[in-house]
User: Which sequence fits this backbone?
């Protein structure tokens, strides 16, 4: 990217994507463009919202490889033998880990009950109570918080260690990503303050100390680019196998669909033909990978309720400079 192209991109960001705090573009494993805005610097981590889901997917894949989780076809409730199903509930008994990964599990609501989840003393139990009902298994049904949080409890049960400890040993550590500890949120006010504080680093936990696998992870744009590069490399990093190649390929292939957009194992599939996929979170946080171009784009942003399409930004204003 030359100086004129860089200036044009920065003008576009300032005009149409003002909440972007950091942007990293890597091609062929080398950083080709990097910029920071809104008072943020390279070392500042941001809450990446649902990008957390895609990062968490890698941990499930690692646990499957290690035999900690036998199969994605394991039934969810087999990991919760002490959980008592609500009277009359039968559908939840057939829900598998794969249904949670592909957002094809059914729930007893039309709109996800955020207040019930966040207000519960045990959010995993609340999420299990939401599971099932009269809707069919196998139809795409995006669960922003509950479904993936059940997976967090499953991972902790399967490995016998807290999710962050497992992640630091098997994913963050090898990639030199610093996620130093748990973030405890005791009130709505504390939640809002911490989430917007650029000094925050770590991973949010629920009242039982379980990592919030659907949100709550703080990463720098460079951290995000490393996750993208890991997946571009099909799970390898510096010659070491981190995530099984088969898991990466399954995760970034279409397993279910929301309209014209494909979904894998907690990754959005943008274009299977180009091996183009993304992790996407509120505020326009994105890890974008284009396998055909050996390209990774990481965008970290502060929260804004409505943002312009980041994938369009990448395809229209970034990719053309990296053929």
Assistant:
């Amino acid at each position: 990217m030359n100086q004129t192209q860089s200036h044009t991109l920065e003008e576009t960001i300032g005009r149409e994507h003002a909440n972007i705090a950091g942007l990293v573009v890597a091609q062929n494993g080398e950083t080709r463009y990097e910029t920071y805005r809104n008072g943020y610097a390279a070392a500042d981590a941001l809450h990446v919202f649902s990008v957390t889901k895609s990062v968490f997917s890698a941990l499930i894949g690692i646990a499957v490889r290690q035999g900690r989780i036998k199969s994605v076809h394991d039934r969810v409730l087999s990991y919760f033998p002490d959980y008592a199903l609500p009277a009359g509930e039968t559908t939840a008994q057939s829900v598998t880990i794969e249904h949670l990964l592909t957002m094809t599990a059914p729930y007893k609501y039309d709109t996800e009950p955020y207040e019930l989840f966040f207000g519960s003393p045990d959010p995993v139990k609340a999420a299990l109570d939401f599971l099932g009902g009269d809707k069919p298994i196998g139809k795409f049904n995006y669960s922003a918080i509950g479904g993936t949080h059940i997976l967090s409890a499953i991972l902790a049960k399967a490995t016998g260690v807290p999710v962050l400890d497992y992640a630091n040993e098997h994913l963050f550590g090898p990639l030199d990503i610093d996620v130093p500890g748990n973030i405890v949120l005791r009130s709505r006010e504390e939640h809002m303050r911490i989430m917007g504080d650029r000094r925050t680093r770590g991973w949010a936990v629920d009242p039982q100390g379980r990592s919030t696998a659907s949100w709550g992870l703080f990463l720098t744009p460079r951290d995000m680019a490393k996750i993208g590069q890991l997946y571009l490399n099909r799970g390898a990093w510096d010659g070491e196998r981190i995530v099984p190649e088969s898991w990466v390929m399954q995760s970034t292939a279409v397993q279910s669909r929301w309209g014209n957009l494909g979904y894998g194992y907690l990754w959005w599939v943008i274009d299977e033909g180009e091996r183009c996929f993304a992790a996407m979170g509120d505020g326009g946080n994105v890890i974008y990978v284009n396998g055909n171009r050996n390209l990774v784009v990481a965008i970290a942003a502060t929260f804004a309720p409505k943002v312009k399409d980041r994938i369009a930004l990448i395809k229209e204003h970034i990719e053309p400079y990296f053929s």
Observations:
- The longest strand covers residues 20-27.
- The chain has a mean pLDDT of 96.
- The longest helix spans residues 51-65.
- The CA atoms of residues 71 and 271 lie 27 Å apart.
